Structure to design on (334 residues):
């Protein structure tokens, strides 16, 4: 073959390969990384882990980078400082930020859980529990101003117990250290999330006697939120995120506790699968997992009532200013 022809053919095939590779790259959907900070790692957030493990986020072209902040204040700091794009945390935190007259408020755009996720755990086994048993006891509660603590106080008052007068209330222990504090002997009762509550029960360290979620009714306990500027500049991303979440919520609603436990087990490697299944079943039965991402006004008003009762409700926490259901409603309509 003549040298010029060989050179021409090589050039032709090289150009063809480059063009083909470029076209193939264009055909592939672009993947966008989204940094999500969760307030804690909990089976309470099962739909979120399902959205990742079952590929619902991936299907929408999103690469979710999940980190655990271990506390509402730390989660919000991460979001406000730009360390994360989206936060999964209690809706009350958006109210606190808004009350500081920030120019870029945090907006709730998708609800994940619709009840409190904590349980009342007693140090001793009680065959016939009555809330009156807490009178005169030492109660190891959650962080002051946080949703778990406010719900805890709301439920106590509902049963005629003044948390400031009728018992010794401890709430100065860091969120991550509350379980170990109880295990080491602090308190007669403690307010715990799962799976810690069930693990304590299995190990004989405590016994679940009541559910704060059942007692307090529906509230936007944890929701996905982002700064208003991020939502405005990334509407397609927020829509995709909400759509993936809704698919996961529907999957959780229509599958058994055993199936859900298997799907989320990679996020709880140190927890026995039987405990995960037990916890999921408990949350499903009490209706803790929201079946769609819409955060309705009735739940928001219940949240504010609980905050007001705790003396933690700032002024000007309007539903319309801090909740954007447009992405959730658009997702459901389609």
């Amino acid at each position: 073959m003549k040298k010029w022809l060989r050179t021409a053919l090589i050039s032709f095939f090289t150009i063809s390969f480059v063009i083909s590779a470029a076209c193939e790259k264009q055909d592939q959907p672009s993947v966008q990384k989204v940094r999500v900070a969760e307030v804690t790692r909990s089976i309470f957030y099962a739909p979120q882990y399902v959205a990742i493990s079952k590929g619902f986020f991936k299907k929408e072209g999103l690469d979710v980078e999940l980190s655990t902040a271990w506390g509402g204040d730390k989660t919000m700091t991460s979001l406000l400082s730009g360390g994360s794009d989206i936060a999964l945390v209690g809706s009350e935190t958006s109210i606190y930020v808004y009350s500081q007259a920030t120019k870029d408020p945090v907006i709730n755009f998708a609800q994940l859980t619709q009840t409190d996720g904590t349980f009342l755990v007693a140090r001793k086994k009680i065959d016939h529990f009555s809330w009156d048993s807490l009178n005169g006891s030492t109660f190891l509660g959650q962080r002051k101003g946080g949703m778990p603590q406010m719900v805890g106080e709301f439920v106590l008052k509902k049963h005629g117990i003044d948390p400031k007068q009728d018992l010794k209330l401890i709430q100065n222990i860091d969120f991550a250290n509350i379980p170990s504090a109880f295990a080491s002997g602090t308190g007669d009762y403690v307010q715990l999330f799962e799976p810690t509550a069930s693990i304590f029960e299995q190990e004989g360290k405590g016994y679940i006697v009541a559910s704060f979620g059942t007692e307090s009714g529906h509230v936007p306990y944890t929701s996905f939120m982002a700064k208003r500027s991020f939502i405005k500049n990334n509407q397609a991303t927020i829509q995709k995120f909400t759509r993936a979440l809704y698919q996961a919520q529907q999957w959780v609603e229509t599958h058994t506790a055993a199936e859900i436990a298997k799907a989320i087990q990679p996020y709880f490697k140190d927890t026995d699968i039987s405990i995960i299944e037990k916890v999921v079943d408990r949350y499903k039965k009490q209706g803790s997992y929201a079946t769609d991402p819409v955060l309705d006004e009735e739940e928001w008003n219940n949240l504010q009532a609980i905050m007001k009762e705790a003396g933690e409700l700032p002024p000007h926490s309007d539903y319309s200013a801090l909740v954007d259901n447009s992405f959730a409603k658009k997702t459901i309509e389609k």
About this structure: The two ends are 61 Å apart (CA to CA).
